[in-house]
Specification:
Elements: H1 9-36, H2 45-72, H3 99-124, H4 129-158
Helix pairs in contact: 1-2, 1-3, 2-4, 3-4
The structure holds fe (ii) ion.
Length: 162
Amino acid sequence: MSILDDDKRSEREEVIGLLTKAYWMEIETVMSYISNSINPDGVRAQEIIESLQEDIQEELGHAQQFGSRIKELYGVVPGSLDFSAEQSYLQPPDEQTDIVHVIKGVIEAETGAIDHYNKIIEFTDGVDPVTQDMVITILHDEEGHRRLFEGFLREYEKEGLA
Ligand SMILES: [Fe+2]
């Protein structure tokens, strides 16, 4: 009994739907992190810039993993015309020295990913262990990244800047 069996088609399609949403979330995160790793000005921005630069590669790797799993489940990775943006909170701030805006946006993006990936882990439990295992590892990355940015925010708050 496997998720790849003929009679598991409806479960498989549901998993593909969840993975497709995850794929687009990663792609949009890559776009947002590219802009937010270039736009910020000021001495204080450097740590955020470097952290986001590293994370672009990680999120891109996640998108590739979600895409590969969609294919393994006999799905098709969507084309760019299917994309619709959702990350209003990660648009460039009015002032490019507004680092707190970027930090809060990253925390919100990571929280969205964490919520969705927990949903996938729950749905695939006992249904698709391979997807579940992959998403647990990706979830770990997102939790680590959110924790890092929560630390940045705490520092800004301590200094009365947030
Ligand atoms: Fe990610």
